[in-house]
Amino acid sequence: MNNQKKIEYNKVFGTYYSELSELIKNQKKSLTVEEFYIKVV
């Protein structure tokens, strides 16, 4: 994997991870983790 792809992957994964942890922290009832995962993927 070249550096550019690695950076892109890390950016996407970092965004996903931070949003997921925010979701868990806030315990949003309107959006389950499964629904969130489907929305992202």
Put the structure in a nutshell:
With 41 residues, the protein is mainly alpha-helical. The chain has helices at residues 3-26, 33-40.
Tags for this entry?
0% strand; mainly alpha; elongated; 41 residues
What does this structure look like?
By secondary structure, this protein is mainly α. It has one domain (3-40). The chain is 78% helix and 0% strand. The protein has two helices and no strands. The longest helix is centred in the middle third of the chain and has 24 residues, at 3-26. The radius of gyration is 13 Å and the shape is elongated. The two termini are 21 Å apart. The mean pLDDT is 77.
Anisotropy-based shape? elongated
β-strand amount: under 5%
| Helix and strand composition category | mainly alpha
- The number of helical segments is 2
Summarize the biggest pleated sheet: none
How many structural domains are formed by the residues? Answer: 1
Portion of residues within helices: over 70%
Question: What's the topology here?
Answer:
Layout: H1 3-26, H2 33-40
